[in-house]
Amino acid sequence: MIRSDGSLIRDYLHVDDVTDAYLTLADRADEFAGEAFNFSDESPMSVVEIYVAICDVAGMADTEPSILGEASDEIPAQYLNASKARDLLGWAPTMSWRWARSNLRLVSDLPWDFRMSEATAEQLREEILDLVERYHAAAFPERPFVPGVSPVPVSGKVFDSADMRSLVDSSLDFWLTTGRFAEQFEQDFAERMGVRFAKLCNSGSSANLLAMTALTSPRLKDRRLVPGDEVITAAVGFPTTVNPIIQNGLVPVFVDVDLGTYDANVEAIEEAIGPRTKAIFMAHTLGNPFDLRRVMEIAGAPRPLGDRGHL
Question: Is residue 94 within 8 Å of 27, Cβ to Cβ?
Answer without folding.
Answer: no
